[in-house]
C-alpha cells in the first residue's frame, strides 16, 4: 500500500547516510546513490567555476563530523542539492529544519532555501560547528514541490555542509519557535 501521508519528519535520505560509505570519503554528484532521493548539481566534477554538491563523510576533507550518522551533504560555491517533496496537503503550511556547518578550515559561505524556485530562507551563512536552522512557513500549492538548498557563489572556493533535513508541519514549527522564545535570556534587573 502506498502512503499518501505527507513526509513529515526526517526526509528520505535527510541525514545523507549511504550504505557502504566509509569514513574519510566524499563524492561529487553521487547519482548512483539513488536511495538518498536527492539531486546533486551541477553534474560536473567539482571545484569548477560554478561549484558542485555531493556527500561527504566524517573525517573527509569536507568535514570532521556529521550532525547525525556518518555523512552530510556539501554545497560548494553555487552548487545545489534538491529533493521533490511528495504528498503535501495543498493549503497546509510547512517549514524545513536542518543543520548547517562549514567545511574544515573554510571561510564563510551562504546558502538559500528555495521551494519551487522561490526563496523562503536566506541567504544564511555557515559557522564552525553544526547550527540548527528553521525556515519560515511556506504554503503547499501542490502535492509535489521541490526543495532546494543552493549555494551563494562569491567566486571563492567556499562550502556549506547540511545534515538532518526535516519537513515540519506548521504546528511543530510554531511549537519549536515558541519554545526557543521561552528560552531566550532575559536581562537581569538587579543591576
Q: Main β-sheet: number of strands, strand sense, barrel status?
A: 8 strands, antiparallel
Helix-strand category:
mainly beta
Q: Between the first and last Cα atoms, what is the distance in angstroms?
A: 64 Å
Low-confidence stretches: 1-6, 44-48, 176-191
Number of strands: 13
- Write down the secondary-structure element order: EEEEEEEEEEEEEH
Average residue pLDDT: 77
Helix content: under 10%
Share in β-strands: 35-45%
User: What is the general shape?
Assistant: globular
Radius of gyration: 17 Å
Count of DSSP H/I helices: 1
List key phrases describing it.
eight-stranded antiparallel sheet; disordered C terminus; 191 residues; mainly beta
Give a concise summary.
The protein has 191 residues and is mainly beta. The protein has one helix at 170-182, and strands spanning 9-10, 26-28, 39-41, 51-57, 71-77, 80-85, 93-102, 110-115, 118-125, 131-134, 138-139, 145-152, 159-169.
Descriptive overview:
- With 191 residues, the protein is mainly β.
- Helix content is 7%, strand content 40%.
- It has one helix spanning 170-182; strands spanning 9-10, 26-28, 39-41, 51-57, 71-77, 80-85, 93-102, 110-115, 118-125, 131-134, 138-139, 145-152, 159-169.
- The strands form two sheets. Strands 1, 2, 4, 5, 7, 10, 11 and 13 form an eight-stranded antiparallel sheet that branches.
- Strand 8 (110-115) and strand 9 (118-125) form a beta hairpin.
